Amino acid sequence: MKKVSFAAFGGPDVLRLIDAEEPHAGPGRIRVRVRAAGVNPVDWRIREGQILGAHPVELPSGVGLDAAGVVDEVGEDVAGVEVGDHVFGEGSDTYAEFAVLSAWARMPESLTFEEAAGYPSVVETALRVIREVGVLPGQTLLVNGASGGVGSAVLQIARNRGITVIGTAGAANQDYLRGLGALATTYGKGWVERVRLLGRIDAALDLAGSGVLAELVELTGDPRKVVTIADLDAPEFGVRFSGVAGSVPDALAEAVTLISRGRLHIPVEKSYPLTEAAAAHIDSRAGHTRGRRVLIV
């Protein structure tokens, strides 16, 4: 099978499309014929060697956590899924023609494979950071870097829970944020004052890693009310860095419910063939994403 791999940490040029042996579903696992794979910032952070604690890497390594596809192997002790089912979920080395998933759910009928691939890690992360930052219904949550996949999910989930959301993003994404129910403002000089004009901030999430933790602490008045998934300098500011996933099956179940009720939609900004995984990483790292990026396999 074809698979994206890297033999050394580094830039996107270390990615190679290689011929590899097919993986197989062990106990408690399923294998899918991958139709689409989600592209997440954690993918290129791992490739660069940034995040190794929560995601230990043995080189050479495959790439990718999220996938949507058709079940073609079911491991021992697995119930409720059959060969031929359309599923989306999380596993390992999903930038490939076949991948083994450790957590999955049946795809909502309203989703294509391309759309479904963009949800698993994104929704788990969104649910986790909302929980960790402790924001409650009736309060206001500031989201730095709100237009990407996780931000899109956070805004919709928080609004669905009765939380007011303020999102920061580039000028081109202001209407997109407003369409998700957020009060929107731009990055750049004077952004802290623009946020203050929109309301009192009870909690804040940093999804962009753009060096604004000090300002987020200032706006909330307490580093314990700030959580980041993207700034490794978090300990210097007393801010929590969230990098270890919670229950992916629970997150997928909630995603299915929200999607089926029309309360969660994350658009696919751009799709790439497997041969252009490096380009997908370059674009993801550049930021300014509106929704998700995925690979079509």
TrEMBL record:
CDD domains: MDR_like_2. Keywords: Cytoplasm, NADP, RNA-binding. PROSITE patterns: QOR_ZETA_CRYSTAL. One of its GO terms (molecular function) is RNA binding. Its main location: cytoplasm. GO terms for cellular component: cytoplasm. Residues 10-295 form the Enoyl reductase (ER) domain. InterPro entries: ADH-like_N, ER, GroES-like_sf, NAD(P)-bd_dom_sf, Quin_OxRdtase/zeta-crystal_CS, Zinc-ADH_QOR/CCCR. It is found in: Cytoplasm. Gene3D superfamilies: Medium-chain alcohol dehydrogenases, catalytic domain, NAD(P)-binding Rossmann-like Domain. Homotetramer. This is NADP-dependent oxidoreductase. It comes from Streptomyces anulatus (Streptomyces chrysomallus).
